[in-house]
């Protein structure tokens, strides 16, 4: 294949403009007949107008965490009540800058992860190693094609995409510096840009690992694997992997297998490395999501702990030392102060770790880390005897007697769980109230921090001690991550989604920073599976969906199929697999509606916004990565709901359904401005209760282009859930009924009565061909 | 208990809510206000004040004054069970956002609201929403937290209270208002 390399700034034209980026593009178009679209490799300014259209409808509501800015040495500055900082910045700009910073950090983290992994895989397999994410996935890289115009075929091609992503991220981060941007909406637009780049980086990472490590390839029947601490056989040596970068964990399994030890050792993990490891081998087990990190380490079950990158407790070395488990760091993002032993002889490293001469080491070579982890697990297992630091019941009761009910532990707990009351009961021998806190405790350890409890009680560990039987019973099944959605699946359901007959596509994703029990995640989702929504998932949320049994004793993955269809639960994989969820929306526009994909972001986003009833939900969103993922959905016009802790992202993007003038779109058929109603009402919102989230999901699934049948189905779900949880028909129903044909038949009389009371009028153009982009009008007015 | 944030690490900045030492003061603020609004979140339905909940106090206050009640989350249902129809129901983000709009009021008339009495939101959600109001509605709106716990971003707030004290505070406010 001929490769054409050129400097893009030598080739500026109206349709292809980018400053100073060297790109290799010639080869990408050879087998992709679609002509290059209007916006290849967009920079920060390219989609400013599109972002403004969205931000004009969904205006930011800022939620300062603190009145001060403390970013530079001219501060601190008080920005409250209209004041400006020493640099001239106001509160709105500062809050939006924090949003941008979070999204840029998130995108940098995913791109950094992608770069790290692709580099390692290229060094092992070569740049020409082909990408293969499933023979039934012809549009293998919807984000890459849509954003960069690149149709990647090999691992080496992914490096070119990362070059572009890294350029954009460094520009975005630079905008956070003192004395740069001053306008809050421009900060917001940049945050959207970071989100778009984030999804590109996610796609690169998952394409690389699916192809190189032979993960399930868009397989709806990806295997069911074990999840839960109780599923781990503690009579064997246990290796625990934590983080997001799977190659070192895969190398551990390879070494175990090559040595014939794969049935003698338990290989388990926490967070996305665990999820991805089960895509590599069915024999791996998932201990749990991020919130299980502290409890599992302290249980002492793990004989060796191997960390890579992201969402790892930064005090992991201290925790590992408490249970005498050697720590191996495999990634330069997380040295933990340990010596770099990458070049030392393996025997010496093993000897030092098994002999307790060193609490941990850095090994930046996956294969070597795989061998060391395995041999150390075998070596320390007989000595450690699984000694943990979880107290026995009798000890807990004695501890509880020391509690003076000062409330200090409760007041530092993010979920202010009622620890003092539970301790009072425990002092009287009743451990049930402590055990009841097990699912609502996110495992942060703040209640145990130095100086919190005047009696130095270790509350998190005490909760875990009171919940030992729960931990033993934690045995569930989760479907391992399938990767992308097949083109044929998109074709099969595209019409039903766009017409609204499949009421919505839910993406439930993100972290385990829940406001209450992790089981609420499954509670919310089971309702929508029964209502035949398509549910896609990834990351810690996917794990928590598995850690729940329904009335028949089945996990949701056992109860519902994994195909992309109504009433199905589709686990795409780890955090990086979120690209397949947003990618499915892009593919609906491309495969089903045949919209041009190549470098055509605005048109595709406009299509998704107006037609694809997709809703993201992250009930336990915590990280900057989650912010970036959400932001990637916003720019595509997909609304996102977060749980109450998501209010700490510091802004919401809210529509005002009471302002009719905000809800006019253009009818692409005529060029006329038409009222399309508040559908979807919001672009980003934190809600407080699961009942509220459940009522909002069908409402945010509504789109201007719903057919009357589709709209009536969505209204039906909305009213039904609203009646169940709020006790009444929602008062905004007239805004969503465009014509009487939109009214669910079974509710006709009731709704007509409400419409009459509210002086409702039928819409003049109930089902226009809606767009927010005037350039898509086929016939101009006049 | 001193007036410090209930969740210890929710530090607001230099301007903090004045502490309401005498609950009677709330009835005075209400009397002075031209366009008050009562915002009630889900936690107001979840706390047992010895056979009643904070909602029962709110209904007494609302009935005596005709102040519109806006419920957040799914709190509406608890009011309906008590034969009281709130003026509106919306998410806590929505009511916060609308209160920053000088042209908005629940009824659509005589905008904007000049006093918001707030209770029952998740503590840390109330904290950031009230911070939003402090910075983006300060020209027209004053805020009062009737929560059990001190909310520093409001103009006035109860201190951190025991359940019994909270019940007493809310009872006194209802009684004072019913007198007038
Ligand atoms: S960046 Fe601006 S607002 Fe922030 S501390 Fe520096 S001068 Fe003050
Ligand atoms: S470890 Fe659990 S109980 Fe302790 S502060 Fe964190 S969430 Fe609360
Ligand atoms: S901090 Fe310690 S003494 Fe105080 S309530 Fe909690 S456990 Fe009891």
Structural notes for this entry:
The complex is a heterodimer of chains A (782) and B (180). With 782 residues, chain A is of the alpha/beta class. Chain A folds into four domains: 1-30, no CATH class; 38-219 and 476-659 and 677-698, 3-Layer(aba) Sandwich (Rossmann fold); 229-384, Rossmann fold (3-Layer(aba) Sandwich); 393-457, no CATH class. Chain A is built from 29 helices and 23 strands. Chain A has an eight-stranded mixed beta sheet with strand order 3-19-22-18-17-14-15-16, with helices on both faces. Chain A has a six-stranded parallel beta sheet with strand order 9-8-7-10-11-12, sandwiched between helices. In chain A, strands 21-20-23 form a three-stranded antiparallel beta sheet. Chain B has helices spanning 24-32, 43-46, 54-65, 76-81, 92-99, 123-136, 163-179; strands at residues 18-19, 36-40, 69-71, 88-89, 115-119, 142-145, 156-157. Chain B has a seven-stranded parallel beta sheet, with helices on both faces. The radius of gyration of chain B is 15 Å and the shape is globular. The mean pLDDT of chain B is 95. The chains are: A alpha/beta (782), B alpha/beta (180). Chains A and B meet through strand 3, helix 14 and helix 26 of A and helix 4, strand 4, helix 5 and helix 6 of B. The complex binds iron/sulfur cluster (3 copies). One iron/sulfur cluster (SF4) binds next to helix 14 and helix 15 of chain A.
Features:
A: about 775 residues, alpha/beta, Rossmann fold, 29 helices, disordered N terminus, B: about 180 residues, seven-stranded parallel beta sheet, 7 helices, 7 strands, about 15% strand, globular, binds iron/sulfur cluster
């Amino acid at each position: 294949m001929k490769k054409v390399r050129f400097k893009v700034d030598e080739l500026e034209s109206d349709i292809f403009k980018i400053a100073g980026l060297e790109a290799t593009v010639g080869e990408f178009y050879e087998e992709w007949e679609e002509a290059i679209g209007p916006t290849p490799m967009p920079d920060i300014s390219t989609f400013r107008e599109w972002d403004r259209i969205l931000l004009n409808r969904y205006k930011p509501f800022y939620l300062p965490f603190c009145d001060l800015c403390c970013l530079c040495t001219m501060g601190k500055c008080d920005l409250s009540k209209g004041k400006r900082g020493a640099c001239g910045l106001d509160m709105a700009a500062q809050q939006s800058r924090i949003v941008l910073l979070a999204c840029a950090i998130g995108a940098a983290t995913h791109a950094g992860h992608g770069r790290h992994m692709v580099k390692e895989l290229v060094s092992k397999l070569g740049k020409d190693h082909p990408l293969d994410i499933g023979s039934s996935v012809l549009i293998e890289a919807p984000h890459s094609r849509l954003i960069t115009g690149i149709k990647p075929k090999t691992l080496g091609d992914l490096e070119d995409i990362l070059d572009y992503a890294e350029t954009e991220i460094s520009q975005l981060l630079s905008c956070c510096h003192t004395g740069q941007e001053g306008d809050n909406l421009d900060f917001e637009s940049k945050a959207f840009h970071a989100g778009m780049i984030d999804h590109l980086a996610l796609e690169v990472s998952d394409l690389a690992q699916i192809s190189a490590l032979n993960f399930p390839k868009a397989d709806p029947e990806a295997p069911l694997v074990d999840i839960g601490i109780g599923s781990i056989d503690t009579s064997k040596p246990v290796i625990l992997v934590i983080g997001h970068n799977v190659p070192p964990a895969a190398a551990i399994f390879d070494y175990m297998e090559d040595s014939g030890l794969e049935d003698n050792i338990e290989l388990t993990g926490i967070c996305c490395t665990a999820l991805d490891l089960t895509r590599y081998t069915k024999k791996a087990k998932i201990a749990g999501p991020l919130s299980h990190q502290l409890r599992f380490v302290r249980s002492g079950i793990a004989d060796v702990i191997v960390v890579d990158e992201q969402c790892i407790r930064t005090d992991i070395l201290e925790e590992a030392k408490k249970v005498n488990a050697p720590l191996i760091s495999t990634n330069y993002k997380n040295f933990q102060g340990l010596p770099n032993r990458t070049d030392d002889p393996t025997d010496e490293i093993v000897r030092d770790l098994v002999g307790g001469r060193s609490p941990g080491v850095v090994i930046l070579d996956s294969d070597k880390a795989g061998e060391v982890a395995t041999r150390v697990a075998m070596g320390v297992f007989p000595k450690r005897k699984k000694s943990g630091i979880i107290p026995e019941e009798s000890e807990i009761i004695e501890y509880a007697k020391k509690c003076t009910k000062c409330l200090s532990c409760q007041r530092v707990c993010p979920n202010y769980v009622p620890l003092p009351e539970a301790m009072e009961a425990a002092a009287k021998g009743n451990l049930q109230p402590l055990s009841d806190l097990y699912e609502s405790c996110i495992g942060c350890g703040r209640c145990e921090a130095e100086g919190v409890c005047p009696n130095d009680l270790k509350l998190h560990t005490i909760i875990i001690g009171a919940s030992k039987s729960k931990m033993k019973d934690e045995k569930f099944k989760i479907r391992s991550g399938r990767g992308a959605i097949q083109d044929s699946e998109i074709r099969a359901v595209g019409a039903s989604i766009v017409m609204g007959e499949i009421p919505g596509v839910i993406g439930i994703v993100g972290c385990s920073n829940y406001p209450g029990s992790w089981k609420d995640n499954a509670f919310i989702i089971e309702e929508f599976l029964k209502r035949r929504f398509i549910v896609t998932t990834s990351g810690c949320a996917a794990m928590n969906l598995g850690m729940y049994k329904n009335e028949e004793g089945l996990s949701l993955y056992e109860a519902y199929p994994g195909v992309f269809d109504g009433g199905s639960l589709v686990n795409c994989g780890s955090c990086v697999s979120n690209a397949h969820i947003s990618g499915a929306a892009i593919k609906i526009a491309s495969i089903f509606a045949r919209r041009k994909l190549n470098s055509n972001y605005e048109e595709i986003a406009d299509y998704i916004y107006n037609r694809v009833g997709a809703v993201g939900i992250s009930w336990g969103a915590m990280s900057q990565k989650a912010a970036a993922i959400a932001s990637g959905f916003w720019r595509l016009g997909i609304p996102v709901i977060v749980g109450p802790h998501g209010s700490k992202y510091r802004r919401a993007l809210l529509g005002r359904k009471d302002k009719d003038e905000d809800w006019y779109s253009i009818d692409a058929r005529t060029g006329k401005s038409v009222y399309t109603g508040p559908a979807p009402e919001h672009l980003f919102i934190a809600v407080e209760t699961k009942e509220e989230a459940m009522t909002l999901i069908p409402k945010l699934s509504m789109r201007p282009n719903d057919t009357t049948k589709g709209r009536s189905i969505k209204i039906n779900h909305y009213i039904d859930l609203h009646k169940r949880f709020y006790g009444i028909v929602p008062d905004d129903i007239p805004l969503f009924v465009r014509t009487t044909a939109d009214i669910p038949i079974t509710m006709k009389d009731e709704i007509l009565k409400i419409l009459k009371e509210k002086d409702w009028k039928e819409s003049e153009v109930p089902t226009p061909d809606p767009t927010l982009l005037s350039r898509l009008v086929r016939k101009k007015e006049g | 208990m001193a007036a410090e944030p209930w969740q210890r690490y929710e530090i607001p900045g230099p301007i903090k809510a004045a502490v309401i030492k005498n609950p009677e003061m709330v009835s005075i603020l209400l009397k002075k206000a031209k366009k008050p609004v009562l915002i009630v979140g889900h936690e107001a339905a979840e706390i047992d004040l010895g056979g009643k909940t904070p909602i029962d106090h709110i209904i007494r206050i609302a009935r005596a004054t005709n102040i519109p009640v806006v419920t957040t989350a799914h709190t509406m249902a608890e009011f309906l069970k008590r034969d009281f129809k709130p003026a509106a129901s919306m998410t806590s983000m929505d009511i916060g956002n609308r209160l920053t709009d000088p042209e908005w009021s629940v009824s659509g008339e005589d905008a904007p609201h000049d006093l918001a009495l707030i209770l029952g939101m998740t503590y840390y959600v109330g904290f950031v929403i009230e911070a939003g109001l402090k910075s983006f509605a300060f020209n027209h709106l004053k805020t009062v937290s009737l929560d059990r716990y001190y909310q520093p971003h409001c103009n006035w707030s109860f201190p951190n209270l025991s359940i019994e004290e909270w019940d007493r505070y809310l009872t006194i406010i209802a009684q004072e208002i019913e007198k007038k």
